[in-house]
Design goal:
Distance between the termini: 28 Å
Shape: globular
Radius of gyration: 21 Å
Number of helices: 14
Length: about 425
């Protein structure tokens, strides 16, 4: 918003900051963006998949898998509470940052450094309390970093390119999971060395984007005032006033819960549900199948969504595919079926990750608060992943077994598919 007090240069700068970007980003821009996300996902998912569960288990005397999952779920869930605040808070602060380095870059770099330092210190912990504290701090750094990094899409990427660019968030997620775990396992790294490796790689891979990609500077005269009351009020976006934002947020929450229910307890499903020998090796095969389809779907279908100018149909189909995969696991519990389901699940989730991210950038209420609003959207990704293992363990152990868990996964995904249908402002 401009006022008579603003001069011509300030007005032009403000329009450039808050208008929809028109110029396509280059291949080099996308490459640096993808490399940054590769570092982010290795640093976040290697601990979740390998280092953190082993570290938690080492502090327990229990042998029953539910006890291990509950302990891990409590640590993860506590950290997830911090994400509820950190994502939108970082977004709101970056929206108002007037640094000469730009609005987003200081937060990207600061978040990466906090994330990396917390991971190194996490590797030194020998108690559940210490693990909980430093994993929470690591997740705060992750939230600060990714809240600013996702806001860059709305700031610099035109609508017709956002599906493809968003695919370069999800494809590195798949690659980073496998690469991080392989590095730790193949190099036979200790707990401390494993955390330190991913922390160092995080900083090294994020730095090129921070140093090479320009970030428009917000003039102080164009900065909206920040009060505690206004900040808290900004965390609530009325679904009645902005229904498309509300439906997109609801869909994202449901689909991410569905995916997390379907994937977070797969190892225990193989061990105790299917009674598979060498379950660890079989899990790696399932993860590999899943990740291959995630990469292909996110890049190919993200670009196709751009070319067709459609988002809703892709998001609906992606969520529905995840529901189908979960139903296969629920009602045909065979190893061969699990491998097919892993491919279908990867196809659906890969498409969802890229196209839904593009959809989210097109339903934001206000160009002046993109960072904050996308931060709220990011909650719908991080929090389900954090608390689903704990809920899933309760469902399996106390209620309906693995079949009930996968039915719940399918129900969440299918409801997430239906939630995109009422969206009107995006095709």
């Amino acid at each position: 918003m401009t006022t008579p007090a603003l001069d011509r240069s300030t007005t032009d700068s403000t329009v450039q900051l808050f208008g929809e970007p028109k110029r396509q980003v280059s291949g080099g821009w996308i490459a640096l963006f993808a490399i940054a996300w590769l570092g982010v996902w290795m640093a976040q998912l290697t601990p979740i998949q390998l280092l953190l569960p082993a570290q938690v288990e080492a502090q327990l005397s229990a042998t029953y898998w539910v006890d291990k999952v509950v302990a891990f779920g409590i640590v993860s869930g506590i950290a997830g509470v911090f994400a509820l605040v950190t994502f939108p808070l970082t977004g709101a602060l970056s929206d108002r940052t007037t640094s000469r380095f730009g609005r987003r870059r200081p937060w990207i770099l600061g978040g990466a450094l906090v994330f990396a330092a917390a991971l190194v210190l996490l590797g030194l912990q020998q108690s559940l309390v210490g693990i909980g504290i430093f994993w929470s701090l690591a997740l705060i750094g992750f939230c600060v970093l990714t809240a600013a990094l996702t806001a860059v899409i709305s700031d610099q990427v035109p609508v017709g390119q956002r599906g493809f660019v968003s695919g370069w968030i999800s494809a590195p997620q798949a690659i980073g999971t496998i690469l991080g775990v392989l590095l730790v396992v193949v190099l036979v790294l200790s707990q401390v060395a494993g955390y330190t490796l991913v922390a160092v790689l995080l900083v090294l891979l994020v730095l090129p984007f921070v140093l090479r990609i320009p970030d428009a500077v917000l003039p102080r005269s164009a900065r909206s005032p920040l009060t505690l009351k206004g900040l808290i009020a900004g965390f609530w976006i009325s679904p009645r006033q902005y229904p498309d934002f509300g439906w997109t947020l609801a869909s994202r929450i449901l689909v991410n819960f569905g995916n997390a229910f379907g994937t977070s307890l797969l190892l225990y499903f193989l061990q105790d549900g299917l009674r598979v020998e060498h379950a660890d090796d079989v899990l790696l095969v399932l993860i590999l199948i899943y990740m291959i389809f995630v990469v292909l779907a996110s890049l190919v279908l993200g670009r196709l969504s751009d070319r067709l100018g459609r988002r809703k149909a892709f998001v609906f189909a992606a969520a529905a595919l995840q529901g189908v995969a979960a139903l296969m696991l629920a009602f045909v519990p065979l190893l061969g079926v699990a491998m097919v389901a892993a491919g279908i699940l990867g196809l659906g989730y890969g498409c969802f990750l890229s196209v839904d991210q593009a959809l989210a950038t097109q339903v934001l209420p206000d160009a002046h608060t993109r960072g904050k609003d996308l931060g709220i959207m990011n909650i719908a990704t991080a929090v389900p992943q954090a608390i689903a293992p704990l809920i899933g363990a309760f469902v399996v152990a106390a209620l309906a077994g693995f079949q009930g868990l996968f039915v719940l996964s399918a129900l969440a995904a299918l409801l997430g598919a239906l939630a995109v249908l009422p969206i009107r402002s995006v095709r």
